[in-house]
From TrEMBL:
Catalyzes the methylthiolation of N6-(dimethylallyl)adenosine (i(6)A), leading to the formation of 2-methylthio-N6-(dimethylallyl)adenosine (ms(2)i(6)A) at position 37 in tRNAs that read codons beginning with uridine. Keywords: 4Fe-4S, Cytoplasm, Iron, Iron-sulfur, Metal-binding, S-adenosyl-L-methionine, Transferase, tRNA processing. NCBIfam families: miaB-methiolase (TIGR01574), MiaB/RimO family radical SAM methylthiotransferase (TIGR00089). Monomer. Binds 2 [4Fe-4S] clusters. One cluster is coordinated with 3 cysteines and an exchangeable S-adenosyl-L-methionine. It catalyses: N(6)-dimethylallyladenosine(37) in tRNA + (sulfur carrier)-SH + AH2 + 2 S-adenosyl-L-methionine = 2-methylsulfanyl-N(6)-dimethylallyladenosine(37) in tRNA + (sulfur carrier)-H + 5'-deoxyadenosine + L-methionine + A + S-adenosyl-L-homocysteine + 2 H(+). [4Fe-4S] cluster 2 binds at C163, C167, C170. Its EC number is 2.8.4.3. Residues 384-446 form the TRAM domain. The gene is miaB. This is tRNA-2-methylthio-N(6)-dimethylallyladenosine synthase. [4Fe-4S] cluster 1 binds at C12, C48, C86.
Amino acid sequence: MKKKVYVKSYGCQMNAYDAERMADVLAPQGFVETDSAEEADLIVLNTCHIREKAAEKVYSELGRLRVMKDERKAEGRDTTIVVAGCVAQAEGGEILKRASAVDLVVGPQSYHNLPALLEKARRARVVDTEFPIEDKFDHLPAPSRDKIRSRGVSSFLTIQEGCDKFCTFCVVPYTRGAEISRPVAKIMAEAERLAAAGVREFTVIGQNVNAYHGEGPDGRTWSLGRLLHRLAEVPGIARLRYTTSHPRDMDDELIDAHRNLPALMPYLHLPVQSGSDSILAAMNRKHTGDEYRRIIERTRAARPDIALSSDFIVGFPGETDADFDATMQLVREIGFASAYSFKYSPRPGTPAAQMANQVPEDVKSARLAALQQALEEDRQRFHRATVGRTIDVLVERKGRYAGQMAGKSPWLQGVQFDDETVAIGDIVQVEITGTGTNSLFGQRVGADPASLTAVQRPHSTGANAA
Ligand code: 5AD
Ligand code: SF4
């Protein structure tokens, strides 16, 4: 009988990508993926350490899993429990002490060793949080064509890992280590394999993706802008995105790519964290509010319809009302299409956690509520502005209701539209007729997409030219 593995991922896109890589490593060992812990013989918690809340979730989940593991044991059934991801990296052996159900603790740089580590863990509990010299990507097996297909037409592609920026609030430089860029040739090999299996969109990811400086086939160092041009040439690839970026690394080549590369979607997630110069300095962000504004201006000049997204932290140590007002001012000026915002959470081992002037919890909560209200208004305004327009939608799956399909706008909005005749992976034109809280609704208009054949189109409506 096949064994089943359940990987539960918390946190960022890097973890979502890693979860798939872990499943790929385990597939040749006879593990099939399940999305239910109940069914699984092997349960992997792929954890996030970025804020205290995220890290605490792991321990409550491990408490529940211990009960389940004990119950199963009484019935003679074994369960193996693995803690992976950034909590594993940060806390290592501590996890074994706090959570008796855990068999293996494995850091993000060791996933390629999972089969051997699991074998070892059958005899005694194991911790592996080394940063090995060899490149784990060289040892991670490629997923099968069917597996790639089942994961959809939009795929993450890791090009860079780690961070050298050391923002004073952030654990990433400690949990994910120093910045490493994968060589262009290896990225291209993975990209071509994904595209050959039907992937139409890449979101290239890295903790600091625009700091990418990988070795090119010409022996020179390539920037992200250059790499994006090469990725756009991969047959079948219609859309490119990248995340997450740092303002300091928005170089001319990348901004030019927004102007010159039609496949590069008009969407930029560029965390600013705060609008106050003194807080930005205390955060060690290495830029001011005005420098951020200028980057946005230049990017908007290159691609006027670009949608902007950001991350914000409120209640960083020392943040005054005036500092917070500067953040609100920046939000009002820029008008973000979407954003993530958080209360500052002191993280062990980071400089900001030791700062004296911590902000009281109730002040953080009030600021977060005010900021989120302003951001939500902007987000809804951005959504509403698409009503009446006809936009390109990449079809990703069947819609919520019969007769509907669902996909994404160029600005990363979910779109539900009436039409079942198109195929997943097509780019179609949809006239937007309304908005919900999180998605747009519309009807397909215009010609049938060229990629549609009679075979793929089950209920052909014939020509549908505009
Ligand atoms: N407290 C609150 N938010 C944080 N982030 C990172 N570290 C912390 C912290 N200690 C937020 C930042 C970052 C996003 C991924 O998480 O906004 O951009
Ligand atoms: Fe963390 Fe700053 Fe690096 Fe982003 S740039 S991962 S916030 S240290």
